[in-house]
């Protein structure tokens, strides 16, 4: 009977570990996907240096058969037309740096590294105030979705880290004579 209880406990531990591993893998894939997207953005922005951005965007709109009278498109063309080559290079550099962080998080999480969990919690939670600010300025489903995903990722990783901390460091028993009720 004792053997069966031990086996059941081991099965629960394996299932919890598998569940943890699976959750980390999904977050890692999400982070790796973002890294690839950011790398593509960085390279794409670099190709726009020394180009007439408004003309490039008009050609892209025509090729994609997007409504050229779209007001959002007009705002984008106006904004891009004001960007300097230096700003484009800075935007590209920012994309590459952020991609490197996402890539580091993703690879570390995929490999189940505790440091990657901490890095992801810090990096992701540091962006939540900015996301809340952007959401307060203009409410969109995309912004709500991004905020929701990031909050869930942080909450999940904090839960995992706390559980691991409890597992590794069990509660320290109180010693008699130091404020315990056993006196």
Features:
6 helices, disordered N terminus, mainly alpha, 0% strand, 183 residues
What topology does this entry show?
Elements: H1 2-47, H2 53-64, H3 71-81, H4 85-110, H5 114-137, H6 141-168
Helix pairs in contact: 1-4, 1-6, 2-3, 4-5, 5-6
Tell me the fraction of residues in β-strands, as a range: under 5%
- Determine the number of helices (DSSP H or I, runs of at least 4 residues): 6
The coarse silhouette is elongated
**Terminal residue distance:** 38 Å
Total beta-strand segments: 0
The radius of gyration is 24 Å
Which structural class fits the helix and strand makeup?
A: mainly alpha
Averaging pLDDT over every residue, what do you get?
84
Order of helices and strands: HHHHHH
Low-confidence stretches: 1-15
Q: Tell me the domain tally.
A: 2
Helix amount: over 70%
User: What does the main sheet amount to?
Assistant: none
């Amino acid at each position: 009977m004792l053997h069966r209880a031990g086996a059941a406990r081991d099965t629960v531990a394996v299932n919890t570990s598998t569940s943890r591993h699976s959750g980390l893998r999904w977050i890692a894939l999400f982070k790796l996907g973002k890294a690839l997207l950011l790398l593509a953005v960085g390279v794409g922005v670099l190709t726009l240096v020394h180009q007439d951005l408004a003309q490039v965007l008009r050609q892209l709109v025509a090729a994609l058969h997007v409504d050229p009278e779209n007001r959002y498109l007009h705002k984008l063309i106006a904004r891009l037309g004001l960007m300097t080559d230096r700003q484009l290079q800075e935007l590209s550099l920012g994309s590459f740096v952020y991609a490197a962080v996402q890539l580091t998080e993703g690879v570390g999480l995929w490999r189940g590294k505790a440091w990657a969990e901490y890095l992801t919690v810090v990096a992701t939670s540091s962006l939540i105030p900015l996301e809340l600010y952007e959401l307060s300025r203009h409410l969109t489903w995309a912004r709500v979705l991004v905020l929701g995903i990031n909050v869930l990722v942080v909450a999940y990783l904090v839960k995992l880290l706390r559980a691991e901390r409890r597992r590794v460091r069990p509660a320290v028993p109180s010693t008699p004579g130091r404020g315990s009720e056993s006196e």
